[in-house]
Every structure is written in C-alpha cells, then in structure tokens.
Here is the input.
Amino acid sequence: MFETVGVRALGMGGAFVAVADDATANYWNPAGLPDVFFSAVLDVQRIDTRLDPDPTRRVGTSNLTTFASLATPSLGLSYYRLRSWQVDRVTGNGIAEDNTAALTSLVTHHAGITMVQPFGPGLTVATVVKAVRGTSALGSGSGAAPIRALLDQTSGLMGRSTTSFDLDVGVMFGVGPVKVGLVGRNLREPEFDVTDGPAVRLRRQVRAGLAVRPTESLVVAVDIDLDTTPAPAGPRRAIAVGAEQWLGWIVVRAGGRVNMKDDDPELVGALGVSVEMLSGVWLDGQATGGRDDGDRGWGISTRVGL
Here is the structure.
C-alpha cells in the first residue's frame, strides 16, 4: 500500500499525490520536485494491521519503514527500507494445534535517483530509476498462537536476496490554487525469489490526487487508487481525504481513508503535527488509527526545507 512513507502524507490520511512539495515527493509524486528549492527528510514509520480480532482467524501485518531523501527542483535522491511481515488467514477453526498460519517476510531496500522534465507552464513529468534489493521468506506457524507471537516468529524467517531495477513515474499539473497529480509506482513489478515457494512480487500501484489551496496557509486534498492491489485480508483500493493548516511555527493535519474493496468499509483516521525547531528545520509526527486495530501506526521525521 502507499501509506508506508511520509509523516506529512500519513498525517493527512494519505492524500498527498497532488500536494507533494518536500523530499518525500521522491516517493509520493516525483513530479512535485519543481516546487522544492531544497529539502531533506529522515522519516520512520510503523503501521500494524490486525484485520480481524476473532481468535479463530489469524490475519495481520506489521510494517516498518525507514526513509531518507534529498530533493532539488530538477534532481532527487532517495533511499528507503520497507520491512513487511504478514500472517495470512488460518484454515480450519484456528484453535487446534495442527492448524497452521502462513507467514511471509519481505524486506526491500530501494535506492533511487529522480529526474524531472518540465513541459510548458504548470506541467511536469518525473521519473525515479531505482535499484531494489529484496529478501523474502515463507514459513508457517501454529494456528492457535497469538497474533503477536506469529509476527515475532515471522521476524526470524531466513530468505533469499534478489536485486532488480524498477521505475516510478509521476505527473503534476497546476493552475492557480489547484493541482492534479498522477503517480505510478513499481511499474516493472520486480520479483524476489523464495526458497521452496513462489516468487514474491511488488505490485504496480497507480494513484491520482487533487489538491486545492483556498488560502496560502491551507491545503485540502483527495487521493484515489486507480487500481486494486492484493493484501492479506483481500483486495485493497483506497480513497483518502486530508487537510493541512499552517499556524506560523506549528502546522496541523488531519485526514482519513477507506478501502473501497471492503465489504464493511472502515474509516482509518489520522492526525499530524509539525513544529519548527529552527528556521527551516521541522519535527513532524503523526498517529493513525482504525476500528479493531486496523491500520494503527505512528511516524516521526526530521525535515529541512528552504
């Protein structure tokens, strides 16, 4: 899913494709770089999803991201590490010891360079060329074990490493206070080999966004996924809405998102805040929560912007 990088973005619920105006644009929409004179970000996020509290079903994920990025109007550099542990649905009643849960671990390292090409007033296209190294492993655990124990067991899985190349492409078009963005990530859908199992693939993701600035200090945004990606609990296609309000040396954010593919869509809400510690140096934080422990997480970052 998109919502693994960027404290500002997640504080707005994940509505950031048409907002991206700092170094996290290298992830959210590289075509946003022309709005950046200079920006640097160091970002840490954790998101845990326990999609079903029913003790007879074991479905959940734990994701941890570390992101570092530099951006100028025409060039960006980024590195991020995504760690994802997944526990898939238990077969049977989930109580008997002989029932098993499928465990998947995927750790990927992405090193990218962003190249920006303006096309006339208001229109920008940008490409991120990435080297991606992934280590993936599969395993199994007791269907009667607590979800936290299964995730801890997933952390110990040993896997094979594979290196591949990938592309992200972003487009941004703006007129006055309105911007429209489009981004495609993992366009080559790199695969990572697994011992005694099928390869694990990073699925292509395409998202569009709209941002409006009714005043200089306020931005309101909406994002929507244009494709559906698989997830442990089933297909995922999100729509997100968020806002950011500047109040001098403090910035506040709020937003939310829902998975349109859920039979019973759940609102995942988010709150974020930034404090300017020194001129151009910001400390960002965000917290995300949903019903039944769905998509609960937090993030902190240090950001420099000129």
Remarks:
- The domain at 7-305 is CATH 2.40.160.60 (Porin).
- The longest helix spans residues 147-155.
- The helical segments are 7-11, 25-28, 147-155.
